[in-house]
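Q: Predict the assembly, please.
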Amino acid sequence: MSDQATHIIPGQSVVSRLSGMATSGLTTAVVVAVLIFMPLLLGGSWTFTLGLCFANSIGVLAVSLLVRYGGEVSIGHTFFTALGAYSVGVLDTRYGISLWASVPLALLLGVVFGLLFAWPSRNLHGIYLAVTTLALALAVPEMINNFDVLTGGYEGLYVATPFIPGIEMGLQRYYVALFMLVIVCLAVARLRLSRQGMALLLAKAHPAAADAFGTRRVWARVSIMGISGGIGAICGATLAFSGSTVSPGGFTFWQAIFLLVGSVVSFYGLSLTRVLIGGAFVTLVPQLLSASGAWIPVLYGLALLGMILLGHYMPRIRKAMNRKAEAN
Amino acid sequence: MSFWDSLLYDLFPLIWSGMITGCLYALGALGLVMIFKCSKVVNFSHGNVAGLTAFLVYGLSSGMLMSLSWGAAVLVALLAAVAIAFLIYSIISPLVFESDLTSTIATLGFGLIAQGVTLLTFGADIVALDLPIPRFAFSVLGLLITGYDLTVLAVAVVTIGALFIIIDYTKLGIAFRAISENPFAAEVCGLNLRSVHYFAWITAAILGVVGALLIVPTTFLSVTTVATFMLQAFAAAVIGGFASLPGALVGGVLVGVLMNLFTFYVSPEFSSTFLLAVILVALNIFPNGILQKVGGSRV
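A: Predicted assembly structure:
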């Protein structure tokens, strides 16, 4: 599925691809413009929920990025979101330092730990890496609870320091999340055009060719984990600020799987609109089904399967229909 | 107490009980490896489906759904496990031949569904599900050996022995090995990949049920216990190389013993972190598992 998306589709001219990019840029601009004015129309609770949507979208983007540029699946991204969330939470509650300092710290920690995790697992790929990230996800809640001097254990932390003093907190929680999402999406779009992005895609699609051109496979793996970990940490930082609380319940193993579900539901898309769909799915489904909790895993599972099967059968159905149209 | 005394009184019992749990991890890991070997899919739904069937045994034998005898309940649960495995593989089989990563993610979806169904049918309560085995215990050289230990050991030896005999000597087993080795050549020779895949998935499901029923008496049965148990099985499979059946066995026992020693001597609170460390270290020293032959590739 991901391969099809990253390769150039034959038979499609450069012009049509460029115009496609322009229209998608336009859609994104319209979506962002609408989102900027949303708080004027919506009540406080919906503004809050939308803020969480944006934060989760960043997490979905981190997982999708790893799939698209690294060809790897992670079910352990809660490790990075927890890192980001707790750097914001701890700096805020213990030292009263606002996002100005804690987001860069979160990004730094995310990248560093992404690299640290990637180094021992540099030779792993596919299922080995997936299972290792699974172990990583399992270790997260236990680490949080055992470092309770810093993290507050089960009780968690409450983030209350404003980003820009003087503006209403509810609006800040919304706009900071939107701003982060836009920035991260822009950065990822830039990555696609950059030297590093090209090298990563080459290393994924043709490892031997990448070796010949001097892109080490180990370097590709370690760097994409670093980038994805950094974005994951920004997701956590945004979650902490927009969600106002940081507690171990937000970084369970299931949460890690939900991020992957969001990524699959958005078809591993990297554009703002696509990741918003994934983020909205991850955030809204538990909210809408909060009365009947047992249905959440069922619905998530069905959505995951439905999207995967759709991704599998859609091109075939389309091809069959085209053939029929040609025959007529 | 001297050092040697504490060694005798703590270490050997810890290793023994670790080996017993390790046998169960191995049962779980063998199922994962069987599926992976032939269809190249990591079955993340393994634990949740096994948990669902364990609950089914509870529900059918306790009077919650029906009050059958224990044996009849297990039989029904085994049939259900086979049916579920058949269904899961039937749905994802078109994906299996296209992308192993996509089909692996699809199994996560089935895992979520199985967990949800368990919650919906049996609720989030914690229940006790015991085995109908005689309760006795005796001690050998300071080791306390219980009826449960011997049951686990016996069942594990019989199940694993039967599995290896099937794989080594029957036609089906030879087909399984051929497909694991080279699916294309096997298909050219006229083997039906799908039917062998079905064999692997169904066998794995049965192994999962056996493992789940045996592990539950040591803990309790809740929605997450069996899934958590299977995570250790994942670690065992990874350490064993994920593509090696004897490796899964060794990995299972190793994980069982190491986890037991770690929780006793160091800390029970960091056991998942320790498991992560064990996986990372093992994969760095033995990138293809502890029993894998050294291989290489040329560019």
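Confidence is low (pLDDT under 50) at residues 1-11 of chain A. DSSP finds 14 helices and two strands in chain A.
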